[in-house]
Design brief:
The structure is a homodimer.
Chain A: H1 10-21, H2 28-35, H3 43-55, E1 59-62, E2 67-70, E3 83-87, E4 93-96, H4 99-111, E5 118-125, H5 128-132
Parallel strand pairs in A: 3-5
Antiparallel strand pairs in A: 1-2, 3-4
Helix pairs in contact in A: 1-2, 1-3, 2-3
The complex binds zinc ion (4 copies).
The structure holds a DNA duplex.
Chain lengths: 133, 133
DNA sequence: CTGCGGACGTTATAATATAACAACGAGCCG
DNA sequence: CGGCTCGTTGTTATATTATAACGTCCGCAG
């Protein structure tokens, strides 16, 4: 392997492709169905690819939906905490990293001596466009 | 009905009881297994109770675990956003509502014209005690 | 009484996720 | 070359989480 965390395999490319073209979050099974024509046959193929893609920061899991999205930034090497605003109407996912949010949460974590964490921040509602409609 | 959102039924009491006595989050099926001796037979009994309890703020769902906890405060009528710090070692769940966190997130929401939202904030890691050990 | 609505019980099934193992192929070394 | 090892893949089976659908029961308004 190179200095990179390593290149993507074919399956990983296909899963990432499906997520990148999607206009909203996709469940693992939606990905599977889309990739059946490309030869996918079973859930583990999707889940294994997703696992690797998430480890590399190319894909995020939306816990409140049990679904997945491609990282808006190509890959997430963000220093701050990543948050998602998810429109329940149109499926739009806005990935963001807000300094004030990061600071306030990391402050709480420090004050309460919580350890190395993985943090989930998900806002569910309607996006500006859908709320206006 | 009274001015209250209404009293709990027997099933709801039992589910809340199971969650209140638990030392950590419980999956719906863990609750079901615990309550089989009390006569529970099938998932819908648990899920229906949980739905009502959550609507009344007595129970919270932890999205990143697909599990449930009793509200630490008895019932949540909090004005701010509620967050959870979850210890992956011992299962301890610290429910909190931090003003700085609430403000920073609601600021982002306002700036981005997101609508009425339901917000999930979950910090996963090790609690102070477990991190020390 | 009668009809309605809410909680409940029950069966079946959907949706999400992982365990387990066989097969394959690329790289390495004898 | 032939055999080894390791990582990816394919495949089957199963575990886990959640909901649909329908019938029963019961309290209460009319
Ligand atoms: Zn990202
Ligand atoms: Zn929208
Ligand atoms: Zn609460
Ligand atoms: Zn702990």
């Amino acid at each position: 392997m190179t200095a990179e965390s390593s290149a993507l395999t074919k399956n990983q490319e296909m899963v990432l492709g499906a997520l990148s073209q999607a206009k909203g979050p996709m469940s693992a099974y939606a990905i599977l169905d889309e990739l059946r024509q490309e030869g996918f046959r079973a859930p583990p193929q999707v889940y294994r690819a997703l696992e690797k893609l998430m480890k590399n920061g190319l894909v995020h899991r939306l816990e409140s939906l049990n679904a997945f999205v491609a990282c808006s930034h190509g890959a997430c090497h963000s220093t701050g905490l990543v948050a998602f605003a998810i429109c329940d109407q149109c499926g739009l996912v806005s990935e963001f990293s807000d300094e004030a949010v990061t600071n306030s949460l990391t402050n709480w974590i420090a004050k309460n001596q919580f350890s190395n964490t993985k943090t989930t921040i998900e806002i569910r509602g309607d996006c500006a466009a859908c709320a206006a409609a």
